[in-house]
Write a structure and sequence with these properties.
The structure holds three protein chains of three kinds.
Chain A lengths: L10 H10 L12 H20 L1 H5 L8 H26 L5 H9 L17 H21 L5 H13 L1 H15 L3 H20 L11 H6 L7 H18 L10 E3 L4 E3 L5 H11 L3 H14 L1 H14 L1
Antiparallel strand pairs in A: 1-2
Helix pairs in contact in A: 2-4, 4-7, 6-7, 6-8, 6-9, 6-11
Chain B lengths: L19 E8 L7 E8 L2 H12 L7 E6 L11 H5 L23
Chain C lengths: L1 H25 L8 H29 L5 H6 L19 H22 L5 H29 L3 H15 L10 H8 L6 H18 L21 H16 L6
The chains are: A mainly alpha, B alpha+beta, C mainly alpha.
Chain lengths: 312, 108, 252
């Protein structure tokens, strides 16, 4: 590094050099304002998704059908809180506090993954969420381990390591139910039917319709495009569904020998944007839950701060 | 002199906020150094220690924890990379490999 | 034979305590005052479920009726549960949960400490392992009692009321019946009077640090060892047992 003679390089030149050579950008390095803004938005959205994502699964902790299933689900949802925390703390290195991020979430200025605006109606949904939603998230997060911003990349490495059991937990539930009683199998298929399309839309709009993808790829914040990641996810999930005898609800799904990938049907982007824009079945419920918990905790935080001020 | 991350007002106590940022260091095994693993937010030392424990050693990752308030850490800045670190470049004589030992000398 | 019947009763008591307490704490998931606290409360919940599973598995072994840990959790009715009344109290606000938690965690601490001396190998082992967990639980809840007590005027008032409200359910933690008394005589179960003495001391110390008042002696609710509970337990079980009850022939 010393041979570079940074002293003679401008911030922009050094930034470009680092991006070009796959070196990480660190918090106190000079970075373009748009790069900072893009990361703040993406990382806080990622953190919010972990935190809001606790709710649909939290919905079944009290009703888990075995003690084993209960502790696994609880540990998983707890990990999500932990991952939200890792991500907030990585995002904070860009100059905003967690309180500011939370405020943006609660006032609707920041978004979270739309998938969590769907309800979890049966126990099989715990299977579908773990298998599909976590599965999709993992594909994205594995890719993000190579993101150009150091703290984000390190958070992703840690999160990927911890999440390795999450998808298996979901798939195990699906497998067990798919091979259980007819009622269980029906529940499993129904959960797959409801979560399949929202899951593959988690990767976001097609590359051509995703205005921010260009910069994000150029800056190596994103390392693979939405469509590439989606394809990876579909390719590996199809076989998993076959193994447990469930049917992916897409009549156009078929192997394309030439591409070496599965072709799949058209996604309903009207539905997607409708949910993003606040009209999903649970948008208001999820946000209100977060606001209520935050309000209920206000006197506790104040008390703890007052105590710390007196006693260190 | 600024923080290791950014120049910013830290959270004031006695308000409704998430507390202060504390950096967390975990010793994985006896004999190893404490290693930085991340941070947590907490109100006060005891809570910082407990939160670090709950957040970073859920999977038996360690046997000892240090927590340090972020605002108490002083960091060098990227601009100092030259003056701080380059002068060490030409001091190879600080490395053991710099020295020529007579052939046949052992355990030195 | 008699010993084993008595032991079974004690195991029900211990397993039900941690199950119901764990279930209550799990309700905090996504509701904590900070993310870190959310994780802390669910950690304690997980520890309690872990203890429950060890106890029920052992129960299944010595009852030898082909039951599993899940049969004990999911296939018993309100009147067949023997948990102490305090653990089924609703979460209320954070201070209520902390008050309940501290009073119970402190009980568990001293109970397990004494139980390590049990001449029953399983109980002594369970106690040694669980003791490490509850030492942390009582540190967590105790420090929160202190923080809230010595925090703001509002928090002091709230946590004092929480402690006062919870007080009438503390006596029942130390309740014994003829089965448990027999076990104490035999050196299997601890001396509950001794546990209570130590518990009282811990509670007084923490309340003092928290600048809070120890509640006046009052009438103590009882009945849990005969399976007499509050109305709240039935609702908790309704949620918890729903799937097992609705699909009795399914495996999960």
């Amino acid at each position: 590094m010393s041979t570079l003679g940074e002293a003679t390089m401008t911030g922009q030149e050094l930034f470009d050099y680092k991006i070009e050579n796959d070196l990480k950008i660190e918090p106190k390095d000079w970075m373009p304002e748009d790069y900072r803004k893009h990361l703040q938005r993406q990382m806080s959205q990622h953190a919010h998704s972990e935190v809001i994502g606790m709710q649909p699964e939290g919905n079944w902790i009290l009703r888990a059908p075995s003690l084993r299933a209960k502790v696994i689900l609880l540990a998983k949802v707890q990990d999500e809180a932990g991952h939200g925390q890792y991500l907030y703390s990585a995002a904070e290195t860009l100059g905003k506090t967690r309180d500011e991020f939370i405020n943006e979430l609660q006032t609707g200025k920041a978004k979270y993954s739309s998938i969590f605006n769907y309800p979890t109606l049966t126990w099989a949904d715990m299977g579908a969420v773990g298998w599909l939603v976590d599965g999709a998230a993992i594909v994205n997060q594995v890719s993000l381990q190579r993101t150009s911003y150091g703290p984000y990349s390190r958070a992703m490495v840690k999160i990927c390591k911890e999440e390795s059991f999450h998808q298996r937990q979901g798939y195990e539930i699906m497998a067990q139910m798919a091979n259980g009683t007819p009622e269980q199998k029906e529940m499993a298929q129904d959960a797959l039917n409801r979560f399949w399309w929202p899951s593959i839309m988690m990767f976001g709009p097609h590359d051509g319709d995703s205005p921010r993808t260009g910069n994000a790829m150029k800056w190596k914040i994103k390392r693979e495009t939405n469509d590439d990641l989606r394809q990876q996810f579909i390719d590996k999930t199809v076989a998993q569904a076959e193994v447990i005898g469930l049917t992916i609800p897409d009549p156009d799904l078929k192997w394309n020998e030439e591409r070496g990938h599965y072709d799949f049907g058209k996604m309903d982007w009207d539905e997607f944007w409708n949910v993003v824009n606040g009209n999903g079945p649970c948008n208001k419920q999820r946000l209100q839950h977060h606001i209520d918990a935050h309000k209920n905790g206000s006197w506790v935080r104040k008390a703890a701060n007052a105590y710390a001020e007196k006693n260190g | 002199m600024d923080s290791i991350y950014y120049d910013k007002q830290f959270n004031k106590m006695s308000e409704d906020n998430q507390g202060q940022v504390w950096e967390v260091f975990v010793q994985a095994k006896p004999g190893l150094a404490h290693k930085h693993v991340g941070n947590i937010q907490a109100m006060g030392k005891e809570m910082a220690l407990q939160n670090a424990r709950d957040m970073y050693v859920r999977r038996k990752e360690g046997i000892s924890i240090w927590v340090v308030k972020l605002e108490d850490i002083v960091a060098s800045s990227p601009e100092e990379i030259g003056s701080f670190f380059d002068p060490m470049d030409d001091k190879a004589y600080r490395q053991a490999t710099y020295y020529k030992m007579p052939e046949g000398a052992k355990h030195i | 034979m008699e010993t084993s019947k008595n032991l079974i009763k004690l195991l029900y008591r211990l397993g039900d305590n941690t199950l119901i307490y764990g279930q209550r704490l799990a309700e905090w998931c996504s509701n904590g005052p900070t993310l870190e606290e959310d994780v802390a409360l669910t950690n304690i919940s997980l520890d309690n479920f872990g203890q429950t599973r060890a106890i029920y598995s052992h129960l299944a072994e010595i009852e030898n009726k082909g039951k599993t840990e899940d049969d004990y959790a999911f296939r018993r009715n309100e009147r067949q549960f023997y948990n102490a009344l305090i653990v089924e109290r609703p979460n209320g606000h954070f201070g209520d949960t902390i008050a309940r938690g501290f009073l119970f965690d402190a009980f568990q601490l001293h109970f397990y400490q004494e139980l390590t001396k049990s001449n029953n190998e399983f109980l002594a082992g369970l106690a040694a392992k669980s003791l490490k967990e509850v030492q942390y639980h009582v540190r967590h809840s105790g420090e929160w009692v202190v923080r809230l007590g010595d925090g703001t005027d509002e928090s002091k008032e709230k946590i004092q009321k929480s402690i006062n409200d919870m007080w009438e359910f503390t006596g029942d933690m130390f309740a014994t019946d003829s089965a448990i008394d027999k076990l104490t005589e035999e050196g299997v179960a601890p001396n509950y009077n001794l546990v209570k003495e130590k518990w009282t001391k811990t509670v007084e110390e923490v309340l003092y640090r928290a600048t809070l008042k120890k509640p006046e002696d009052c009438y103590m609710q009882k009945g849990s060892l005969s399976g007499l509970h509050s109305e709240f337990l039935g609702h908790l079980l309704g949620d918890m047992q729903y799937l097992q009850r609705a699909y009795p022939d399914s495996e999960w």
